[in-house]
Amino acid sequence: MKRIILIVLCLIFNLSLAQKGDWTTKYSQRWENYDGGTKLYVSNDNLLPITYKIGYNPVNLKASKPNGTFIVIPAQSKDVLILDFVKIEATKGWKFEKGNTSIYLGDVTDTDYDEDYVYDLPFEKGTSFKVGQGYNGDISHQDKYAIDFDMPIGTKVYACREGLVIEVVKLNSKNCDKPSCADFNNYVKILHSDGTIMQYLHFKKNGVRVKVGQKVKKGQHIGFSGNVGWSTGPHLHIDLYLTDKNNNYQTLPTKFKTEDNTVTDELKQDAVYLKDY
Fold it and tell me: What whole-number distance in Å separates Cα of residue 26 and Cα of residue 17?
């Protein structure tokens, strides 16, 4: 009977998984009924937190938290109590009508990050590369803090900051200069200690050298650049971002260490930068 109730609840709640790209989200929810109502527990098997946005429509039940509340569930946690629904009138039955609850990858409530962190350039010591497109570029960076380095296919790519690899796509080979080809990007996403994520795009097919769940060091080799996905020519795209409460990527300005230990607030389009460290 409990299994039947759970299936029905999942159907009428219209629980939606809000996600971007090829995220594989692993989570489960468990309902525990008792004489005075029911409780909801959620387990998160992901390598990063998930955020649960409440949107239930109960009948003859009072929820412990109001709709619209965001609840952060830590990475790899089990049976976190999300909600307790208590019967309002003890002698009457209760049910749920259609609601709209969503789950987002990451902690969308955390907008603080280390704005002063200085990132390494993502290429090998002793080499230099031109910025083909900078912040707010007119090709694909409109309203984005993103950087494209013009880079021959097969160039070694290095991590700009230490962190945890949370997503890898490496098997694509298709390329075109249309936004539709963004679905064919090869990329690596690395989660940092302050909750930000840096993504590295356009690796050549099978050119990624790290795997999901791996901890990487700053300056570690993570793959080889390419010309895969939405691309007008061989290059490496990088950007730093947080996910907001509307499940949108908010890219962030990033400081880089450049030649002679100079800290550069913004890498300029058409400028060439040398990595001498």
Answer: 10
Q: pLDDT tens string for the chain (277 positions)?
A: 333 333 333 433 444 444 344 445 688 999 999 999 999 999 999 999 999 999 999 999 999 999 999 999 999 999 999 999 999 999 999 999 988 899 998 999 989 999 999 999 999 999 999 999 999 887 777 789 999 999 999 999 999 999 999 999 999 999 998 888 899 999 999 999 999 999 999 999 999 999 999 999 999 999 999 999 999 899 999 999 998 888 888 999 999 999 999 999 999 999 999 999 9
Same domain, 101 and 159: no
Of 84, 105, 126, the residue at which a domain comes to its end is: 105
C-alpha 119 chain-centroid distance: 19
Strand partners, 216: 163
Same domain, 245 and 144: yes
Same domain, 135 and 70: no
Q: Domain range spanning residue 185?
A: 118-274
Instruction: Check if the beta carbon of residue 97 is closer than 8 Å to that of residue 57.
Output: yes
Q: Are residues 54 and 189 in the same domain?
A: no
Structure tokens at 235: 């290059």
